């Protein structure tokens, strides 16, 4: 009878340990799932930030391209004005009777 009791007691202890171990494993798994969701949320937040930064970069590239085009047009206009001024001065010198052309 004592032997029977010890068998049942041993079985009950082993069963309790298995249940406790299962609960510990379940609890750890639940915590890992929560941690994973937190990481997913962080990744989503970072991805959103990266997307906004990428959009801002594209907008700034467009703005820079527009400004470069305006600058290039202004430089071309400046060159034309200088060429016209130089041509005008040359004509004035050619028409001036006091002007002595440079040799060469």
**Helix/strand order, N-terminal first:** H
Label the structural class: mainly alpha
Task: Choose one word for the global shape.
Answer: rod-shaped
Q: What average pLDDT do the residues reach? A: 89
Number of strands: 0
Give your account of this protein's structure:
The structure is a single chain. This protein has 104 residues and is mainly alpha-helical. 90% of the residues lie in helices and 0% in strands. The radius of gyration is 44 Å and the shape is rod-shaped. 0% of the residues are buried.
Structural descriptors:
104 residues; mainly alpha; 1 helix; 90% helix; 0% strand; rod-shaped
Topology:
Layout: H1 2-95
Outline of the structure:
The chain has one helix spanning 2-95.
